[in-house]
Each structure stands twice: as structure tokens, then as C-alpha cells.
Amino acid sequence: MSTSLSYTLVITGAPWSSQAAQTSLAFARAVITAGHRLDRVFLYGDGVHLASALSAPPSDEPHWPQQWSEFLSEHQIPGIACIASALRRGLVDEREQARYELSAHNLRAPFQIAGLGEWVDSTLTSDRVLYFHGSA
Amino acid sequence: MTTLIVIDQAPYGTWVGREALDMAFSLAAFDQPAALLFIGAGVAWLRRAQNAAGIGQKTLEKNLSAAPLFGIEQLFAEQTACERFLPDPDSRVKGITMAGSVNHLLEQYDHVVFAG
Q: How many domains in chain B?
């Protein structure tokens, strides 16, 4: 009997302001290593900062957005930033840049911007939905 | 499967509670059952006659009052927190179900979401 499970991770804590990005990445790696499936990573609230293409930490510090985007690309896992959270916090893709006539876009590939419906879908389809918050 | 959204922070200080409320409304919009639970300082959401104009924000009481209209099944509040933060029952909005035991309530839901 297969014990493989499907997971969605919801990250609401911002990188560097919290350990959410780091802890969730460690968990995600463990999920894959253990033979489970990661359906989706959903960034919500302050968690959307993880999808910024403009983060530039010192070279001797961990680069959570880069590490997360490499992990998502390697395993072809959808990374979704909630559109309402993202727009509030200045994270936009080309489409939203055009829509709001902004001067730039800064969404890091392979992250995409989409609505809360993606999260709702996860609550219906993933075996487990885990939340990584910025505060205890 | 009903999702229980838990709000444990007072309104206005951060957007965490608003974004948790958006999650509940989103579930309801997709015809998925949702309920809200306010615990700790989060019960301040339930104060009647809020007026946030003085701090340049929209009053959240209106958002909350729309919850039943959007299909949110139930609004729960931690009883001990209400007694601490809103001791006068008349100071609370109507339509709230008191939860004597938060742990007991949480056990009844397969999917519990704490506001960040």
C-alpha cells in the first residue's frame, strides 16, 4: 500500500523577517526526499516577498528567494504568489505592471501571480496543507 | 470539509486579520464551507461601533458583518478572551457563538488555518 502523500505549503512569513522561508524549504526538500509530492507552494501575506527578483543579500548570506526558485524549477512545482498580497507589497509581474501602469516588474521566475482560488484548490486536492508563519 | 480560520490578533495593527478574512471569503466564494474563530486579542474584531476613521483605515466591523452574507457558516469567539477584552456583552457584535473550549472546537475541524 502506498503511503505517498501530496502536500501544499503556504508561506506567510517574509524571508529575513522570519524563518518561514528557511523552514518551509527544509520541509519541502524532506517531502521530496521521502517520496511524497508537492502540489503547490502558495505565498500569502508577507510571504510574497519570497518571490521578489530584487532581493540582493550579501554573498555570504543565504539567498532564500533564489534557493526557493531553484528548488521549484528543479522539481517543476508551481509557486504561486497571491495577487492581492503581492500588489499591496509591490510585487508584480509584467501583466500587473501593464495593468497598473507601474515602472517595473519584479516577479522572480518560476513564481506566478494568481488568486486565492489556487489555495482553495489546494485545500480540496492536497492531502496536507501546511502553513509557515512569521510569528509563533 | 469545513475550514476554520482562526484570528488571534487585534484589528488595524497589521493586515494579517484582513487577509485571513479574505481567505474565509474566498472559500465561501468557491462554495466551500468556512467558519471563523476569534481568540486572544483577536476578539477585539468583535467590538461594536468601531470607528477607524481616526487612524485612516476602513472600519472592519462592516467587513465582518458581511461574513454571513458571503456564506461564512459560523463566527466563534473564545469565551475567556471575550470576558477579558470585551467584558460588557452589549459591546460585542451580534451573532457570535461563544467557545468555552478552543481546543474542543479545533478538534472538530480537519482543516484549521491560523492567521499569520
A: 1
Query: CB–CB of A116 and B116 under 8 A?
Result: no
Whether ipTM > 0.85 holds is: yes
A-B contacts (CB, under 8 Å): 42
Per-residue pLDDT reduced to its tens digit, A5-39:
999 999 999 999 999 999 999 999 999 999 999 99
Please give, rounded to a whole number of angstroms, the shortest distance from the CA of B18 to a CA of chain A. 10
* CATH number of domain containing B62: 3.40.1260.10
Given the residues A20, A82, A86, A129, the one annotated as active site: A82
pTM confidence score: 0.94
Residue A82 annotated as catalytic? yes
Range(s) of the domain holding residue B35: 3-114
Cβ contact B22–A116 (<8 Å): yes
CA atoms within 13 A on the CB side of B29: 14
CATH class of the A6-132 domain in this structure? alpha beta
Q: Measured between alpha carbons, how far is B61 from B83 in angstroms, rounded to an integer?
A: 19
Q: What's the burial of A22, exposed, middle or buried (CB within 10 Å: 0-12/13-18/19+)?
A: middle
Q: Are B77 and B43 in contact (CB under 8 A)?
A: yes
* Domain range summary for chain A, segments of one domain joined by +: 6-132
